[in-house]
Amino acid sequence: MQTRQFPAEWHAQWGVLLAWPHPDTDWADNLSDAERCYSEIISAITQYEQVLLLCHDAQHQAHIQAKLAQTACQLARIVWVQQPYNDTWARDFGFITVFANQHPLLLDFTFNAWGGKFDATLDNAVNQQLIKQPLLTHNSLETHTLVLEGGSLESDGQGTLLTTEICLLNPNRNPSLNKADIEQALKSSLGVERVLWLSQGHLEGDDTDAHIDTLARFADPQTIVYMSCDDPHDSHFAALQAMQQELQQLRQANGQAYNLIPIPLPQAIYQDGRRLPASYVNFLIINQAVLLPIYDDARTDAIAIAQMQRAFPQHLIIPIDCRALIAQNGSLHCITMQIPQEVAADAH
């Protein structure tokens, strides 16, 4: 019988998958700002590990290389892949790695752009092309018809999955499946033993239908970092207060309550009258460091950095201004997908 395990994000990594923005995407209007943000993120990652970077073609790659050469980026740590893609949210279309009998298995779930909101034909084909890369070709890719995005899954690495009902039970994903069906599909594909469902919590401007990675994240198997709101005049107040109460009721597998670390919402950021989904918990854990999105709000940025250092005492917290990313309704975690070190261990 095959035993599966869904590693936590803090599991030792080979590197991180990203897809660089290009003018044919929705990034066209703020491409230079987005490229600056991507440059900073990739430069930070390559100080610690590798990057698997999607670009459109040779000309696009040369353009990106010139941008990154102006930073502290370790260019030798980038593996380039030239292939078409619709958009850059690698967290949601990138392969999800589990271990099957202790060997890495790459899962390719169906990506429908968060319920058919955008064209995702190219994005949904990315993993079938990536598996042909020399870095990955020795791995097995398992294809699933289940519609599922990486941003909706939060694993403690010990058999517990944290997710949201608003997203996974949304009829725009898997309309023929009920909650029990989806929970069973998660357990069989990912190897998790417990699924913890949050029914409350949502950020304005988030078109993923409340991905867990904007709301609450594991810092370790006993600790959850979450977005909080203490301002009764904020439109998020009721939902985030209700989510906080749900988190307080959750229990670890041993029956103990979780250690909860709140991080307040930053001051509201608007674009064309629309509030953007700025979240500090959309961070990325890499080897020895945590990349933390910040939003040019001196007070809450400082609180977020301090709370994250409390949550990750052994990691360096690296703040990165991600206002350019939330202009397209996502942040730092949304554009990245970690790759465990075992995935590339036997690459030739």
UniProtKB/TrEMBL annotation:
Q: Which InterPro entries match?
A: Peptidyl-Arg-deiminase_porph
Query: Which GO terms label this protein's molecular function in UniProt?
Result: agmatine deiminase activity; protein-arginine deiminase activity
Coiled-coil region(s) at which residues? 233-260
- Pfam families referenced in this protein's UniProt entry, alphabetically: PAD_porph
Sorted alphabetically, the keyword list is:
Coiled coil, Hydrolase
**Name of this protein:** Agmatine deiminase family protein
What domain of life does the UniProt record list for this protein's source?
A: Bacteria
Xref: Gene3D superfamilies: L-arginine/glycine Amidinotransferase, Chain A (3.75.10.10)
Q: What is the lineage of its organism?
A: Bacteria, Pseudomonadati, Pseudomonadota, Gammaproteobacteria, Thiotrichales
GO BP terms, alphabetized = putrescine biosynthetic process
